[in-house]
Automatic annotation (TrEMBL):
GO biological process: methionyl-tRNA aminoacylation
Protein name: methionine--tRNA ligase
UniProt entry keywords in alphabetical sequence: Aminoacyl-tRNA synthetase, ATP-binding, Ligase, Nucleotide-binding, Protein biosynthesis, RNA-binding, tRNA-binding
Stated family: Belongs to the class-I aminoacyl-tRNA synthetase family.
Ranges of biased composition (kind: Basic and acidic residues): 621-632
SUPFAM superfamilies: Anticodon-binding domain of a subclass of class I aminoacyl-tRNA synthetases, Methionyl-tRNA synthetase (MetRS), Zn-domain, Nucleotidylyl transferase
GO cellular component: aminoacyl-tRNA synthetase multienzyme complex; cytosol
GO molecular function: ATP binding; methionine-tRNA ligase activity; tRNA binding
Parts of the chain that traverse the membrane: none
Length: 683
């Protein structure tokens, strides 16, 4: 992340860009799928927008409230605030290492967050979009509190695992209720999930919970459905097909009131003093994390724009300014409904003029070497593991972005990771920059030469081809097609190598065709200058290295970092004749092939093999079961046919008398199957 910068505010009449990435839940260490799914992708787009000169704010932070945090803190023997401080620091450290340049990376437990969440709820309550419901819930008499589902443990009614939780059984994967459902008027069980807990007990003290009635608050999504549909008709036009599909799957089923309160201590408390809302009923309840988590975006923004004033309203210039601000949100597909249904519904229900999401960028899943990331089993690369490899963060950024799961699941493979570094980066991009800068230093005294492109039509054509790819790059980034944008960069790099090959850059060229050589070096230096700028959103440190090698300096002595600028069109004249370049440096180094197996084994190789073997065994068992069932049905069908045949034969024997001699043959087994059995003629 960059250092502190003066808060950016939107400018009237400008294209102002507000960017969020899904707030990472704080009680774990992010793996590579988490990183590419939201925070890294959003960072690329934020850097692109800044390099285009657009007023841009990139907001993120840790999502700290909720049941999972309380239970994790309980398991580690600390209070939730201490746990959150620990993991917030871990997340920030990892994101710093990956060079993520947030304008603000905050957290949800702040006075600003409480204020904005309670204000939104109050407006929803006053506008009639909140309802109260009485439900039966587990209650622990020992510590005098209703229990959230995860605070109840017991035996799964489906697989009978003894360590199931009240929300889910990890052994069989089924959703559960903490208590056996009540019977309805017809005597049937009112099941909300697929099973329940047998012999439930309180996670905190082992007490058997009681059934008690309690009240909870629900957001009336059903009352807001038509408004959501009307808003979506325009908003969803730029969204991915999967994002639209997920959103409409909720709408097609019909939106229903959704619970927004939980029986916890760690969360935003329900506001008091509201007409018709009992303070006593909700004194021990807080807002459900998925009601307040998305409100973390504006509350974290406020800590950035109004850091010195709790009463400040600069944050509203971003979040209540839809005419001047475009909101882009990045997330994995599992977070879509909360950003496209629940949060917009909350905004609409306040009747305020909120900035609502304009562009949603969702990703599918990043898998690992044919399996899935698993922290508990040590499978896959997590943020801290990437640093342990000793490979530069920009190489990790490049590989992850080149495999970004934009339209379907993608795969992390160590062999591809090494190949990307050794071929895409070292042989294509790295060698191009090294060759041009070294030649200029050695043969042209480290100064951009005087040159005239008009004498060389092929060089003019090169300029046009590069500009064509630049336009593709800009179009791809604007539409959040980050993989295609990266491919355009590598195409421009390949054109640079082709330029040198076609013109046979060498000592012979400078000796025999000095004008052509100067023109080739002049346009080539500007070529890698363009490459550095368009590469900066993806590989910021390597882009800075290229700019430094080209002698491009920062705005001041204090700020040595050169400011990236992505032009509308490539004029190939950013570096003027006489400009002194810097010293050539290697951008990349070879990763030995032997590292592939070393890293594969280090990051879950054996466990991954076991996981794959288990999956193969399960698949084989399912296939065998299907075949067995198929054979069983076949035998059953054959038996039924045989039984029907025997019944028909028996019927014939009882209704048609047989000739006595033939009957005797049948009885002693001497009659042949092919011999006809004629009935005795009636007298």
């Amino acid at each position: 992340m960059g250092g502190p910068r003066k808060p950016t505010l939107p400018l009237p009449g400008k294209e102002n860009i507000l960017i969020t990435s899904a707030l990472p839940y704080v009680n774990n260490v992010p793996h590579l799928g988490n990183i590419i799914g939201s925070v890294l992708s959003a960072d690329v787009f934020a850097r692109f927008c800044r390099a285009r000169g657009l007023p841009t704010v990139y907001v993120c932070g840790s999502d700290q409230y909720g049941t999972a945090t309380e239970t994790k803190a309980l398991s580690e023997g600390v209070d939730p605030a201490t746990l959150c401080a620990k993991y917030h620091a871990i997340h920030k450290d990892i994101y710093d290492w990956f060079r993520l340049d947030f304008d603000v990376f905050g957290r949800t437990p702040t006075p600003e967050h409480t204020e904005i969440v309670q204000d939104i709820f109050t407006r929803l309550w006053n506008n009639g979009f909140i309802e109260q419901r009485e439900t039966t819930q587990a209650y622990c008499p020992t510590h005098d509190s209703f229990l959230a589902d995860r605070y109840v443990e017991g035996e799964c009614s489906l697989c009978h695992d003894k360590g199931a939780r009240g929300d889910q059984c990890d052994a069989c994967g089924n959703l559960l209720d903490p208590l056996e459902p009540d019977l309805d008027a017809s005597g049937n069980q009112e099941t909300k999930a697929t099973g329940w807990l047998i012999n439930p007990r309180c996670k905190l003290d082992g007490t058997t919970p009681e059934r008690r009635q309690t009240k909870h608050l629900y957001l009336r999504l059903d009352s807001l459905q038509n408004e959501i549909k009307e808003w979506l008709a325009e908003a969803e036009k730029g969204w991915s097909a999967n994002c639209v599909s997920i959103t409409h799957s909720w709408l097609d089923q019909g939106l229903k009131p959704r619970g927004i309160t939980r029986d916890l201590k760690w969360g935003v408390p329900i506001p008091t003093g509201l007409d018709g809302l009992s303070d006593k009923d909700y004194a021990k309840k807080v807002f459900y994390v998925w009601f307040d988590a998305c409100i973390g975006y504006p509350s974290i923004t406020k800590t950035y724009t109004d850091a010195d004033s709790q009463e400040g309203t600069n944050w509203e210039k971003w979040w209540k300014n839809p005419d001047d601000v475009s909101l882009y949100q990045f997330m994995g597909k599992d977070n879509v409904p909360f950003h496209t249904i629940i949060f917009p519904a909350s905004q609409l229900g306040t009747r305020e003029n909120w900035t609502k999401v304009k562009h949603v960028s969702t990703t599918e899943y990043l898998n690992y070497e044919g399996g899935k990331f698993s922290k508990s089993k040590g499978i896959g690369v997590f943020g801290n593991n990437a640093r342990d490899t000793g490979i530069d963060p920009d190489v990790w950024r490049y590989y992850l972005l080149s495999r970004r799961p934009e339209t379907s699941d993608s795969e992390f493979k160590w062999e591809e990771f090494v190949d990307c570094n050794n071929n895409d980066l070292l042989k294509n991009l790295g060698n191009l920059c090294q060759r041009i800068v070294k030649f200029c230093q050695a043969k042209m005294d480290g100064v951009v030469p005087e040159y005239d492109l008009s004498k060389f039509p092929a060089l003019q054509q090169h300029k046009e081809e590069v500009d064509k790819h630049l336009q593709e790059y800009i179009a791809n980034l604007k539409t959040l097609k980050l993989r295609s944008g990266l491919a355009a960069i590598m195409s421009i790099s390949a054109l640079g190598n082709k330029l040198l090959q076609d013109n046979k850059l060498s000592n012979q060229l400078i000796a025999e065709e000095p004008d052509r050589c100067r023109a080739v070096i002049g346009i080539a230096l500007n070529h890698i200058h363009l490459l550095a700028n368009i590469l900066s959103p993806y590989m910021p440190a390597k882009a800075q290295s290229i700019l430094q090698q080209l002698g491009v300096k920062g705005a001041s002595e204090e700020d040595q970092e050169a400011f990236a600028h992505i032009p509308d069109q490539w004029e190939a004249d950013a570096l003027k004749p006489g400009h002194a370049i810097g010293t050539p440096e290697l951008l990349f180094s070879t990763i030995p092939a032997g590292k592939i197996e070393e890293w594969r084994d280090a990051y879950g190789g054996e466990e991954l093999r076991k996981q794959k073997e288990l999956e193969v065994e399960k698949a084989a068992a399912k296939k065998a079961a299907r075949e067995k069932e198929k054979e069983k049905k076949k035998l059953k069908k054959a038996a039924a046919a045989a039984q029907a045949s025997q019944a028909a034969e028996g019927s014939a024997k009882t209704t048609l008398p047989m000739h006595p001699a033939l009957a005797a043959q049948v009885a002693d087994g001497t009659a042949k199957e092919s011999e006809p059995v004629d009935p005795v003629s009636k007298a």
